[in-house]
Amino acid sequence: MSVTCPTCTSTDETVAVRQALLDTDRPLDPPTRALLSMPPEPGGTSGVAIALFVLAAVFGLLGLNTLRSDDSGGSPDAAYQAGYHYGAFVLGAVLLGIGLTVHANHRRRRGDTADQWPRSYDQWQRLHQVWRASWLCRRCQVAFLPEAPPRPDSAAPPVTALARFPEWTVTVARQGDGPGAPATSG
Which pLDDT band, with edges at 50, 70 and 90, does 104 fall under? Predict the structure, then answer.
């Protein structure tokens, strides 16, 4: 599909933003790649919390394996036996607790930003739709929507410099959040 850039009327240098990010023949430089990348879904889990959850699960499975075995651990001491049989569960529970704390702190930090948008998955889906519909002109270094704006009373400019691309996509996606618009969960 060929789309004409509204600024320079070029068709040979335009490409969908999502395709530009995947292009290995003409890769984007790291700053431009960062500007054009899709923001993550709101309310996600941090990588640290995920790693802690996985470790907790591994230690839980290790504890189950230890309980299933008939091995006594090699010592008649009762405290040693309890630690041998249940230590992996205790360590797994501690890791799980730390992971839940990290996850809760991550969500709270994301929720503390009152001006952050998108806050809900529905808002993120609208942002994702705008991002998928956006095109890049490699000659002018601008982003644009090749079709009509989402609403006739659109306040978003039809073309934006790449440096303003993240704010521009949010502005276009937020068009439905005005007065009289259906409320979104947040």
Answer: confident
Percent of the chain with pLDDT over 90: 23
Q: What is the pLDDT of residue 118?
A: 76
Tell if the pTM clears 0.70, that is, is over it.
no
For residues 15 and 59, what is the distance between their CA atoms, to the nearest angstrom?
A: 48
Cβ-defined contacts of 94-102 (< 8 Å, 24+) = 95/52, 95/53, 95/55, 95/56, 95/59, 96/52, 96/53, 96/56, 98/52, 99/48, 99/49, 99/50, 99/51, 99/52, 99/53, 99/56, 100/49, 102/46, 102/48, 102/49, 102/52
Question: What is the number of H-type helices and E-type strands within the chain?
Answer: 6, 4
Residue 121 CB partners (closer than 8 Å, separation 6+): 41, 42, 43
Report d(CA 124, CA 118) in Å as an integer: 5
CA dist 45 and 93 (Å) reads 19
